[in-house]
Amino acid sequence: MTRVNIVLLLVLVACALSLVTSRHGARRLYVELTRAQEEARRYETEYGQLSLEQSTWSMPARVEKIARDSLHMQLPTPQRIEVADLPGDAALLPPAAASANRVASASPDTTEPATAPIR
Length: 119
Description:
- It contains 3 helices and no strands.
- The protein has helices at residues 2-57, 60-69, 95-106.
- The protein is mainly α.
- It has a domain at 2-67.
């Protein structure tokens, strides 16, 4: 009977050690999960701040102000603006506009004139 009690005691100690080990592992994993969630929240906050900063830095009014003040740039006068027609300008049109232009110019029985491509 004494041997049975010793074996049962050893089994009980082994189960207790197994329980303590698994609980410790679960707590360690929970702490790790909590830290990862906090880090994810910090990253989300930082991403929001960086997105706001990017939109602020790239505002057209700000870019224009820096171009004028720091780089001494200015808009050209209407006399200095030249429009150049490129050969094969239909290739520059969006696909819907290019196909509409081809259809309009290919059908001679339409009552409306073919429209020129928009530039």
